[in-house]
Write a structure and sequence with these properties.
CATH architecture: 3-Layer(aba) Sandwich
Number of strands: 11
CATH superfamily: Acetylglutamate kinase-like
Strand content: 15-25%
Order of helices and strands: EHEHEEHEHEEEEHHEHE
Length: 246
């Protein structure tokens, strides 16, 4: 399988699900949200929306709190995971505010009820927002402990009929080895789900990967820190690594 071939520089995808990690918002900081970093990310997203692409975002919370991290040692796992979900809500609010200030119209929808702060996730409403050209930011993961925001991205992507899940990372694709440790490592342009599983490449957690594989929902791994990469991915160019159903 190959990626859709765009015509006349047109987008290869009409609707995408962008998975952003909380750590991506830190920039070079040790924790929290780096203002310059979040503004730059929003500029990249805005460029894609101006092309007519419908964008939904799932955001993590690792820059504030991660349920499986060292800071949660000794805590009840479910409690720690709920704290992580609340961290994603904080990130989603910051991302939405930055988008609105940049001229986009963002809607934050939470998988857990915090109606004084954000609206609850209701699938038909999310679809309506996307069709209206709004950016929908999904917060609080799946709303359940023991599941990651990768799994939330796979689920929401399938639910909204996204054509692809774009996993934004610090590395510009999936490599044969760690490129920081092995200078001979090469980037995979394309991988089938079966190949990725056989090679144990750890692209997403097992639950997320299973959902995408079953729903034949392709995944593109790319670097959100590489200027213009998101636009190139949406145009169907050779950017990052495509994981597809064979």
């Amino acid at each position: 399988m190959s990626e859709p071939m765009p015509a006349n520089n047109a987008p290869a995808y009409k609707r995408i699900l962008l998975k952003l990690s909380g750590e991506a918002l830190m920039g070079d900081d040790a924790f929290g949200i780096n203002r310059a970093t979040i503004v730059r990310m929003v500029e990249e997203i805005a460029e894609v929306t101006r092309m007519g692409v419908e964008v939904a975002v799932v955001i993590g919370g690792g820059n504030i709190f991660r349920g499986v991290a060292g800071g949660s040692v000794g805590m009840d796992r479910a409690t720690a995971d709920y704290m992580g979900m609340l961290a994603t809500v904080m990130n989603a609010l910051a991302l939405g505010d930055t988008m609105n200030k940049a001229g986009l119209t963002a809607r934050v929808m939470s998988a857990i009820a915090i109606e004084q702060v954000v609206e609850p996730y209701i699938r038909p409403k999310a679809l309506q927002y996307l069709e209206e050209g709004k950016v929908v930011i999904f917060a609080a993961g799946t709303g359940n402990p023991f599941f990651t925001t990768d799994t939330a991205a796979a689920l929401r992507g399938a639910e909204i009929g996204a054509e692809i899940v774009l996993k934004a990372t610090k590395v510009d694709g999936v490599y044969t080895a760690d490129p920081k440790k092995d200078p001979s490592a090469t980037r995979y342009e394309r991988l089938s789900f079966d190949e990725a599983m056989t090679k144990n490449l750890g692209i997403m957690d097992a639950a997320a990967f299973a959902v995408c594989r079953e729903q034949k929902l392709p995944i593109k791994v790319f670097s959100i820190f590489k200027h213009g990469a998101l636009k190139r991915v949406v145009l169907g160019e050779n950017e990052g690594t495509l994981v597809f159903a064979s």
